[in-house]
Amino acid sequence: MLCEELAALALEDEVEYMDTSETPWYWYYKAKCGVWHRVEDDPKSFMSSDDLERYYHRNPQGVIIMNTAGGEIQINFAASTQIHLKTGKEKRIKRSFQTDTGFRCKCDEISQSPPAHWNDFDSETPYQIFSLRKDSSEYQIVERFVRGDGLLHDPIISIKRIQNLDLWELFCRKKVQLMRIRGQSDIKEQMLFHGTDAKNVHSICTFNFNCRLSEKKRKAHVYGKGTYFAKHASHAIKYSNTRQGTKVLLLARVIVGKYKRGHSDDCTPNDDQDENIHDSCVDDALYPKIFVIFDSNQIYPEYVLEYRSN
């Protein structure tokens, strides 16, 4: 899955079987948002990488119980998991020789730090956009997804990463809020495509998609009056305007949650419900290819793709 592959980018150098260097090793846990954090960053635990590393060297395949501020935690090195023994909640853990001081997007407590794989982050600008090198792991992961899952066969000119901390934090907060409301430990998230005109990219990167604007402008609200996303790039390109043979697609991280088949007059995914039990509308509840989102905080525009239309 693309979300998981991108989350792992910050930890590309995985566990090595022999540690012959003096480089310090660190331990990370995977937060609800899918981003990896140093164990020292968990406010409910006083675990440290030094402690885990010491236990790991004693028995790399072992299972230990640690008493932390948040209760007893079972660490299973072989399974790469940590389990809170009282609540049963499980998190994935990883070992890496990253030498930074840790990174946070803090979906659990939402801090002011960017995701780990962002580079040259400038907190003074509304957003930044970086062209990915074609030989980078990130470019190749995204391209593979666009070709394989997105079914885009046209030549790709560039893939650019959008870095907007304000939109990222709103997205993380929304995800945690919905999980809390639903009483779930996770909520369905997908990478989806949106075709648009190049002139709209700056506004989307700055303010996100305007679902209310979509409601006013879209002439054919087949599945609801929101912002439309497609599972396949090959469908979204129908809405990309051509300029000198070049088209633009946005690849967004979208919280689709629980969905239902939408109707043309739907202004929310729960218009015909007494309770707010749905998070989005789709074209087909069993095999959805089109998703309609009514709350922009459920969207994080992550990549801009430029491609040449055949």
How does this model look, in words?
- It is a single chain.
- Helix content is 21%, strand content 27%.
- It has seven helices and 15 strands.
- The protein has a six-stranded antiparallel sheet with strand order 2-1-6-5-4-3.
- Strand 4 and strand 5 (81-84) form a beta hairpin.
- The relative contact order is 0.13.
Sum up the structure in keywords.
single chain, about 300 residues, five-stranded antiparallel beta sheet, 15 strands, about 25% strand
What's the structural blueprint in terms of helices and strands?
Blueprint: H1 2-7, E1 26-30, E2 36-38, H2 49-58, E3 63-68, E4 71-76, E5 81-84, E6 90-96, E7 128-131, H3 137-148, E8 156-163, H4 165-182, E9 189-196, H5 201-207, H6 211-217, E10 227-230, H7 233-236, E11 246-255, E12 259-261, E13 280-282, E14 290-293, E15 299-308
Parallel strand pairs: 12-13
Antiparallel strand pairs: 1-2, 1-6, 3-4, 4-5, 5-6, 7-8, 8-15, 9-11, 10-14, 11-15, 13-14
As a whole number of angstroms, the C-alpha radius of gyration is 21 Å
Mean pLDDT: 82
* Ends distance: 28 Å
How many helix segments?
A: 7
Which overall shape is indicated by the principal axes computed on the Cα atoms? Answer: globular
> What is the helical fraction, as a range of percent?
10-25%
- Estimated share of beta-strand residues: 25-35%
Q: Helices and strands: which structural class?
A: alpha+beta
Contiguous low-pLDDT stretches (5 residues minimum) are 13-21, 99-106, 108-112
Biggest sheet, open or closed, and with what strands and sense? 6 strands, antiparallel
Order of helices and strands: HEEHEEEEEHEHEHHEHEEEEE
For the secondary structure, the number of strands is 15
> Strands of the biggest beta sheet: in what spatial order?
2-1-6-5-4-3
